[in-house]
Structure formats: structure tokens, C-alpha cells
């Protein structure tokens, strides 16, 4: 009986420590990456503004080839939405909210049925006539106690991998 009592107190103590750590950690997050692609910025932008093409380079689509995708609207225009369902990477929705033609696409991302938008963008800057720099970033909030995942998971690595794949595709 003493063992069970100590075991339960230990488990409750660990749970309390985990919840306290989660309460201290920031709820806001930022992730992103940048890469140089040896193609004109107009060519890079024309590719990245098509959200349907994200599935060819984003690391989340690569993690789950069985991801269920649904599109609504005209791709590459404000209001276009992409909804996905996946047992491996979760469910979500992405909506184009603003386009600065030839330069930047802003999007709202909603994860796992949340009504709180995470702000994301992909921006293309011309470095020379045949070289572009691509920035892909997201800012958002992670609810308590799920913000604890920030200790174990670095989303920027997914952006690094996605942009490296984009570079490979565009430089072929």
C-alpha cells in the first residue's frame, strides 16, 4: 500500500512540475526559414503563390502522402482556402489573406479546428536578375499546456526542409 501511495504522489508531483513549466513557457511562437534560389524572383513568386503547389515542397505533405486535401476558390488569389485532414500531421486550414504581386503572399493558418489564426507569409526578394531570396515564416499562439511542445519540437526545421525542397524543384 505504501508503494502505491508513493507512486501516486510521484506521478502527481511530476504532473504538477510539467504544468508549472508549461505555465512559465511563452504561449507565442515564431518559426521560419530563408533560402537563396538561383532563379528570377518573378519565376519563384509565380510558383509559391499557388497554394496547391505547396504540397510539392512543404515537409508536412511529405510526412503524410495520404493527407486529404480540399481547395476552395481560385488558387493564387485572396480568399483561396486549403483544408487538410491527416492522422500524422493533424488537421487545418490555410487562407490567402493578402498578396503583394511579385513579392509576398500572406496567409492565415488554423490548426486542429482552432478559430485562432496563426499569421504566415512567403516572401520573395530579388538579389540579382537570376537569384532570389525566399522567406517563409509563421507567428502564432500555442494554448496552454500544449505550449510545452516548444521544448521538444522546432518547427523551423520543417521550414528549412521545405525551402530546400522548393530550391531543388525550381533549380531543375
Automatic annotation (TrEMBL):
Q: What is this protein called?
A: SRPBCC family protein
Q: Which SUPFAM superfamilies match?
A: Bet v1-like
The domain of life is Bacteria
